[in-house]
Structures are given as C-alpha cells and as structure tokens.
Amino acid sequence: MAFDGTGYGDDGAIWGGELFVGSAVDGLERVGHLRYAVLPGDDAAARVPLQALAGFLAELPGLAAEVAVRLQLPERFFTAQKLVEKRIQTFPTTSVGRLFDAVAALLGFTGAISFVGQAAIWLEHLARQAPLKTAYPFPWDGRELDFRPLLQAVAEERGPMEVWMGREAPPNDGGISLGQAALAAAKRST
C-alpha cells in the first residue's frame, strides 16, 4: 500500500493512493487505488488545498455547488472549479495526500500551505480534538477506494469551528525538537 502526495504513475496520472501486490524480485502489480479525481492547476493543487477540493468535489457536482455557497469559499476555489469544468490544466490523480488537502479545505484550511504536509497536519490536529465517533464511509469495491461518500459525510457534518495552532513553534519536526528540549530541561531541573 502506498499512500502519499505525488508520484508519477504508469498510466500518466498522478498517483498517491495505490495498492500493489508482488515483490522487488518478481515485480509489482497495481491491484487497487483511490478513485480518480482531477487536480486543477498543475503543481498549484499541491500548494493550495482549495484547488484540490475543487478537483475532488467535481466528482460530486451537486455537493460542490452547495458547499461553495454555504461555506463562502474564497474566489480561488471558483477559479479552480472553472479549470475543472473546462478541463484546462487538469490532471487525473489517485493521491491520498491531495484528498487530505481537500478535506482540510472543506473544514476551513483555505490558504496556501507554507510547508509540505501542512494541511494534513492541520487536519490531524482537528481530528485529535474531535470526539470519537464511527468511521466515515470509505468503501472499497475490490479495485477502488471511493472517496465520494467520505466527502459527502464530512460536508454534511461541517459546522462552524475555530482551530487553534501554536505560533511560536512549527507543528512539524521543529516543534518536536522544541518539545524534546523542554522535556529534557524539565527532567534535568528535578
């Protein structure tokens, strides 16, 4: 299983949600993947989660229009949506990383990212604060993981929220290092 952001697939698509069977010696066969969506705007979709959201929501046209109005999404979303509708600068993808970006945008991460994985980290931060509940639907038909029911459920549940993140330390390895240093200092002083 390979779930990541961006890789060039054998079929010319942007991969990132693949299931392989085989070995390094005998070779690998791709036996499953995330359902295809489109990414509008080339590399920009990896830097602006709203663009990934426009591409993934294109698979749910009625939901896309409703979500855009209800959440008052920024203009960037509508620009990306036009690219998708006209099939200009769009690329097929199975990227789970871009799905994380799309869900983050759906939940309020509407700016550009500053570092790789930022939207996913933000999404994880939200998930850790959320009460435990049953899993979102993410059906597997033996060949594809279908993200549409998951996006539908998240969109239906989406309500007003405020996310708090630290400003003094980054929420990545730099923040981990700072936490380790603080822990070591605290142990040393006792």
TrEMBL record:
Coiled coil: none
BP term (GO), one: protein maturation
InterPro entries referenced in this protein's UniProt entry, alphabetically: Carbamoyltrans_HypF-like (IPR051060), HypF_C_2 (IPR055128)
Domain Carbamoyltransferase Kae1-like intervals: 1-157
Recorded GO MF terms: carboxyl- or carbamoyltransferase activity; zinc ion binding
UniProt cross-references to Gene3D superfamilies, sorted A to Z: 3.30.420.40
Protein name as it appears in the record: Carbamoyltransferase Kae1-like domain-containing protein
